[in-house]
Amino acid sequence: MSQISVRVAIALLSAASFASASQAQASGSQPVGTLRCAVKSNGDTPVIAKEEVVCDFFSAADGTATRYDGRITDVDIDAAEVDDGHMTWLVIGGTPTADFAGSYSASPADPELNMPGHAIVLKKTDGSGVILRPYLLQGHGLNFAVGVKGLSLVSG
After folding, report:
1. What is the pTM of this model?
2. How many Cβ atoms sit within 10 Å of the Cβ of residue 67?
3. Banded pLDDT at 77 (limits 50, 70, 90)
4. C-alpha 92 chain-centroid distance
5. Which DSSP string do the residues of 59-120 spell out, in sequence order?
6. Alpha-carbon distance 70 to 35, whole Å?
7. What are the extents of the domains in the chain?
């Protein structure tokens, strides 16, 4: 392998490591897991409030999954067609074994989350401090979590 190839490989690895570390630090605190939800619509209709979703919480501690059924209670996205609609959030606050069932409503992102000033997160309305921060996973279609302003979850 030439010295140029080695330098390029090192630069790429450094950039990837920096991006991963930056995304983890951007949460303001260590995420306890991710919440991934899929819309139960037929995929050819606009996403609307009261849309049913099925969600899985994946614990950052051990990777176990917990199923939740839910409903979008408020939405602020264009009435565009969504194919393979999904939502993914970093779950901040609580513990990896907490019950995340409950109601969540839109709130401006706190400065310690290192998000743009106009960014919106979903906060659990019971005062537990649980926050759902939209998370982009490349190659998984449109993540319209950024347009959801209300979500209700029940244990599945």
Report:
1. 0.72
2. 10
3. low
4. 10
5. ETTT--EEEEEEEEEEE-S-S-B-SS-EEEEEEESS-TTS---EEEEEEEPPGGG---TT-E
6. 12
7. 29-155
